[in-house]
Specification:
- The complex is a heterodimer of chains A (about 425) and B (about 140).
- Chain A is rod-shaped, with a radius of gyration of 57 Å.
- Chain A is of the alpha+beta class and about 425 residues long.
- Chain A contains 11 helices and 16 strands.
- Chain A is about 50% helix and about 20% strand.
- In chain A, strands 1, 2, 3, 4, 7 and 8 form a 6-stranded antiparallel beta sheet that branches.
- In chain B, about 40% of the residues lie in helices and about 15% in strands.
- Chain B has a 5-stranded parallel beta sheet with strand order 2-1-3-4-5, with helices on both faces.
- In chain B, α1 packs across α5 and α2 packs parallel to α3.
- Chain B is globular.
- Chain B starts with a strand and ends in a 6-residue tail after the last helix.
- Classes of the chains: A alpha+beta (about 425), B alpha/beta (about 140).
Chain lengths: ~425, ~140
């Protein structure tokens, strides 16, 4: 009977007689370093040398931290310190010490360009003790987890990117929300403005109606008492005149004149109000024709006066005929009035192109006005001459300004005391037709 | 009664007196009946209200009608006169302070025969009244009643 082979023989003896353990160790696919207690490298696997881009020859007999210093380009490198702490911990606890994945960059050989390459490692340090309990050596086993960390890193990057996207989406959602809010606010403001506009329109309509009612009331109710004042003064004069003192007759005449003056004021104020609020009916207006017509009326009103009217023919304008007639009635009427003291009065109406507009002008050689007060000319109830000199209510030029304003034009005056006056006006869309 | 007369519809006593005075200055002495507002005028013309049962002395030669009056104003009076067969052709002269375009248009649209604004100057006022009187009383031939 042959003796059955022992287990030992079967495993090591029969398959690999006289095994070379150093050789086997060095060929192990794992990454091992064997260190003396002072961290001098005494054995290394080929795999370790490959992974760390070193050779056994450059490692053996040298200190661990001498061959694997921290990457000086990485100020945050903690690999060497962590490794030292782990080694010390393993020795002091007499137990294997697993380190967290470490970033420990390795120095590339000069043949591969030198410098450091980023690597992540997962090391385990295991102390080995002799039969007497003394520390013999430390087994430093590592796994290169660079690729794993890389994947993690990429995952993390992707996660970060996804997170960034989520954040961005969130922000955009917020922006969309804010835009919607802004839009809503804008819409609300628009509605408010619309409401305000509608209210303003209604107010304007109301005030136009009020004004109409007011005008009506004024034109009717204010004139009635004036008729009574004038009428009964007249009746006193006509029925009791012969028995009255001349002074009493004079006073009654003044009462009547006052009443009539007030009636004119009322009419002109109403006219001014109408001018400001009535609807413009625009058409082609024959300004020269109107001026000639007005001149004729003025001549008739005072046939004894010697007045020459020079009216340029063919002047036309686009505007409201009734209102433009009022303008010419006022301006020509003023010219007629203020030339009252002239033996040879001359009143002109003409137009001239100035740049892209046509300027109309009514000029006279009459009393003129003190140009220091020119800015008062167009004010309501403003007069630059005393009533004794010239009749008037002071509303005419205010009416002219309103009308010209409503036609989108301008009106201004030039004059000098005693040397006549000139009133200029422009109208939008006015053109001189051949 | 076959006497020609004028119906003056006027709420203002001053205007009434002034108008009567102006009419008196005319040589033709006409009878004037005064209604002091629109309601009175219609009651008189249609024999209603206080005039119920009374015989109308024929239609007036013409009506001098103020516009602004309490109760029924001139425009409303004119409208009713034109709607009624009896007064459809009655000459109605609007005699008012108003120069409002709106009033003139509605007056003429409703068939007023004339529209005269009361002047403030009594000389002009009297002249206007006299001319109206002359024209509508003497010159104008009114439609048969």
């Amino acid at each position: 009977m042959s003796p059955s082979p022992s287990d030992e023989n079967r495993h090591s003896g029969s398959l690999l007689p006289d095994p070379d353990f150093r050789f086997l160790f060095e060929k192990s696919p794992a990454l091992y370093l064997i260190l003396r207690p002072d961290y001098t490298i005494i054995a290394v696997t080929d795999a370790y040398a490959r992974a760390t881009m070193t050779t056994r020859e450059t490692l053996l007999g040298r200190g661990l931290f001498e061959v694997f210093p921290d990457n000086p380009d990485d100020p945050h490198a903690t690999g060497a310190r962590n490794l030292r702490e782990s080694l010390e911990r393993a020795v002091s606890t007499r137990a294997p010490d697993s380190m967290a994945a470490q970033k420990y960059d390795i120095r590339k050989p000069e043949s591969e360009g030198g410098g450091f390459e980023i690597r992540y490692w997962s090391p385990v340090n295991t102390p080995l003790f002799g039969p007497d309990g003394g520390l013999i050596c430390i087994v430093h086993r590592v796994e290169d987890v660079t690729e794993f960390i890389g994947i993690k890193q990429r995952e993390s990057d992707q996660e970060k990117a996804a997170e960034a996207l989520r954040v961005r989406a969130g922000e955009m959602e917020l922006e969309v929300f804010q835009r919607a809010q802004e839009l809503q606010e804008a819409n609300r403001k628009l509605r408010v403005v619309n409401d305000e506009l509608a209210a303003a329109k209604k107010k304007a309509e109301d005030s136009a109606r009020d004004l109409e009612a007011f005008s009506y009331s004024v034109s009717h109710d204010l004139r009635a008492p004036l008729r009574a004042i004038d009428g009964f003064s007249m009746m006193i004069l006509s029925q009791f005149g012969p028995g009255l003192d001349p002074a009493a007759q004079e006073y009654l005449a003044r009462v009547r004149a006052g009443a009539q003056k007030m009636a004119r004021l009322i009419d002109e104020l109403l006219e001014l109000a109408r001018v400001a609020h009535s609807q413009l009916i625009t058409e082609s207006v024959d300004l020269s024709g109107i001026a000639t017509d007005v001149a004729g009326q003025l001549r008739e009103s005072w046939p004894m006066r010697k007045v020459e009217f020079r009216i340029e023919p063919g002047l036309k304008a686009h505007g409201d005929a009734r209102l433009l007639r009022l303008v010419l009635e006022n301006l020509l009427g003023n010219a007629f009035k203020f030339t009252g003291n002239k033996a040879e009065a001359l009143i002109e109406f003409r137009a001239a192109r100035e740049g892209d507009r046509i300027v109309h002008c009514v000029r006279d050689n009459g009393a003129g006005y003190d140009s220091r007060y020119a800015d008062k000319l167009f004010g309501t109830f403003q007069r630059l001459h005393s009533i004794r000199e010239f009749e008037g209510t002071g509303i005419g030029l205010a009416t002219v300004r309103r009308i010209i304003g409503r036609h989108g034009g301008e009106v201004w005056a030039e004059g000098e005391l005693g040397k006549g006056a000139a009133f200029f006006f422009t109208l939008q869309g006015v053109r001189k037709e051949p | 009664m076959s006497d020609k007369y004028i119906l003056l519809v006027e709420d203002d006593p001053n205007d009434e007196l002034l108008t009567l005075h102006a009419l008196q200055e005319n040589r033709i002495k006409n009878k004037v009946i005064v209604a002091r507002d629109g309601v009175e005028a219609l009651d008189f013309l249609f024999s209603t209200g206080p005039h119920a049962g009374k015989d109308l002395p024929g239609l007036p030669q013409f009506v001098l009608l103020d516009l602004k009056m309490p109760r029924l104003n001139g425009i409303e009076v004119l409208q009713q006169l034109r709607e009624h067969p009896k007064t459809k052709l009655l000459p109605v002269i609007i005699f008012t302070s108003s120069k409002e375009e709106k009033d003139m248009i509605s007056s003429y649209r409703l068939g007023a025969n004339s529209y005269v604004r009361k002047p403030v100057d009594f000389v002009e006022f009297a002249a206007a009244v006299k001319e109206l009187d002359l024209y509508w009383m003497i010159l104008n031939e009114k439609a048969p009643d």
